[in-house]
Amino acid sequence: MSILQKILTLFRGTAHEAGQAVVDANALKILDQEIRDAGTELSRSKEELTKVMAQRQLQANRSKDRFAKKAEYETYIAGALRQGNEQLAREVAERLAAVENDLKNDEQAITSYDNSISQLKTAIAATERKLARVKQQVDTVKATEAVQRAQTAVASRHSGANGKVTTALDSLERIQQRQAERGARLEAAAQLESEAGEGDLNKRLQAAGLLPESTSVDNILERFREKPVQQLSHEPLSLPAAEIKETDKVERKD
Questions:
Q1: What is the mean pLDDT of residues 101-113?
Q2: Which CA distances in Å does 178 have to 167, 174, 188, 191?
Q3: What is the pLDDT of residue 227?
Q4: What is the domain range of residue 70?
């Protein structure tokens, strides 16, 4: 096989795949059109059946007229023979023979029409049953297709929602990571600043016990625990004599 033939084969294969894809994508539309075409053909078959039945009826009417003509010719022949007119009887008999031949042809034609009508009726009835079943199946297929499209849409929306939630969680994780990194940098900066100033020196002096402790409630209570307070008497304290004299002088002046 030459290269050109292979290329042509490739084109045919590609065209077939593309055509099949188009057919699959529009399967329901094609099916609906095929059903409409089948319905149209069924209507035409019914029209043909009507024509055949009409032709059969016309043939039956002609045959009926011939039967009447046959009876008439038979009467003429009998009358001519009674009169002894052999020649006239023969002429009428010739016409009667033609009528009887026509009647035989009519009978064959009517039988043929009857067979055709029976076959057409059977075919039309079978086609109608098949078409009805196909329409029912098409309704089921359409309902299934609608349900599957709805399920696909729901699954797509659910997948999209999950994707959005996942994206939001990723964004939140990145924000938390940035905040943790920023906090670590701030702590490191504070530590460097403390080490560069007096803060670190004071901490080390305090740890060595060289800085005076700050006054606090706990320190005061601890000091009093180490040195118990003397019991106070209910009697007034005695003042020195010099202090008493000075007090009296002040009272006299007043």
A1: 92
A2: 17, 6, 15, 20
A3: 62
A4: 3-200
